[in-house]
Amino acid sequence: MLELLESHRATDLVVDGARSASILVDRTWRAIDVPFETDRELVGWARELLESCGQRLDSASPFADGYVSIGSSRFRVHAVLASGVSSRTQVSVRRHGGSAESLDELVVAGRLAGRAADWFRGVVQRRESFLISGATGAGKTTLLSAVLNEARDERVIVIEDTPELAVTLPWVIGLCTRAPNVEGVGLVSASDLVRQTLRMRPDRVTLGEVRGGEIAALVEALASGHPGGGSTIHAGSLEHVATRLEGLLSPVACSWLPALIPWVVHLDKSGGAWRFEVGRFQVDVRGRLCVERLVGADG
What we know:
Blueprint (H helix, E strand, L loop, with lengths): L1 H6 L4 E5 L3 E6 L2 E5 L6 H13 L11 E8 L2 E8 L9 E7 L6 H6 L5 H12 L4 E5 L5 H9 L7 E5 L12 E4 L13 H8 L6 E4 L6 H10 L6 E5 L3 H11 L2 H10 L2 E8 L2 E11 L5 E10 L1
Parallel strand pairs: 7-11, 7-12, 8-9, 8-10
Antiparallel strand pairs: 1-2, 1-6, 2-3, 4-5, 5-6, 12-13, 13-14
């Protein structure tokens, strides 16, 4: 089924058991025929994809997430078995481009204005850390990859749950978290990996995405003399970023953010172009983390 994403220029494929399937083209969902007659057939297909990237999908591990490379494209595959969680197995696939995009390529494609690309280059050259926020599919990972690719001749360590960032630097090191095995042991968290990077002589430490407590470890890495890192975070607005981080960090760590992570960029995708807002973290008179909005502009 993955060839449907290529042939229809689609970005996402979702399958709801043997009942229905849809692809996302230009931000519009289109129904397609379901090639599976039973839920068992769907499970077999999903299990084969996930096993090819070292992930388990069975009654002991009913959720799985992995990355599959086929030809020039990469696909993120997520599956949830119908094991008391859902009445049908759910499979979600997202297609990512097979090659990295630079800031210049994003400008040529009309997704980013030249002045915006220059601003991001300045952030990299000044070794200023940043967060990129937005909804699912907004382009956070694509933009983070392009920005990091400006850090030429530097040793960049990237930490992710699944390898999505397309960073092509000669000295880039990719580390991935690991889920516990069926006995409940062997967990390697993003926080574990961030702390290990401090012994690996990084120039920059980057998290693919901030979801929870790993942001505290990233703040620790930045505070220990490794500026210029970045990450993405799901949020609906600049203000929502501050609210989320206040729920994840201690008051002391929040008070460090304006100095350690000066910039937050919020992306909103409209058609093929990006609209973004730029803000700075601040701590208000009540000691609460907030974001001062500085720029709102198209691509």
